[in-house]
Design brief:
The chain is mainly beta. It has one helix and 23 strands. 2% of the residues lie in helices and 49% in strands. A hairpin with a 2-residue loop joins β18 and β19.
Length: 241
Amino acid sequence: MNKMLFRRPNIWDKPITLFTIDGITVHIVQSRDSTHTIFKATYGAEKLLIPLKGSVEFTDIYANEKDIIYVPRRYSDVELSYERGSVIYLIEVISNSDFEPYVKRFSEARYIDVGDGLSRRRRYILIDVNDRSEKFLAGFTECCSGCWGSYPPHRHDDKYEVFVYYGSEPGFGIQLLIDEDLQEAYIVRDFDVFLVRYGYHPNVSIPSTRLNYLWVMISIKGARDFSMDIHPMFSENRRRR
């Protein structure tokens, strides 16, 4: 599968699978009238359930906007209740570990202010290396208007990353993907999903708006960590010249 960008579908009150690749699946449900659904998910896959708009309840766990619920691999049917107008994502990856469900609150998340000038942003970390998950790291990045995210350009080809954008309407952002053989730019809007499988992947908003995004890093091989390779143009050695 070469496709990277998955547009927000114009489909309501019905769970939609956006893509499946290498044991990773991303689903969405958008509510207009419904308040209940069942995701037909994958047994053997650990899952993250994220309401980017509205709220959701799974089993006895209630999540507000931008909270993240961890759903264990033993669930194949993920039954949800939610408020009207919600936009909810379910991201899953095949896993070998068994944990119990839990929720991480956006309001309680650790955050780091990074960058300066036109790369100023706040990075919230909800699923960290010490949290109970075999494959996932997850959080949110909220940028200043017209600023760059995922910057300086970096890559982590041993891990995939899923971006889900929000907070840019009525404007839009631009997502870049760069490696030795590829230089591409994509216009992205709220609730679009972008899959980073390789390469450098900085993004930027137009000056009048912000480009915020949920990010979910998924370990395909190797450690579940935040290590990355910075583009040579922005390396420490280059800066000292």
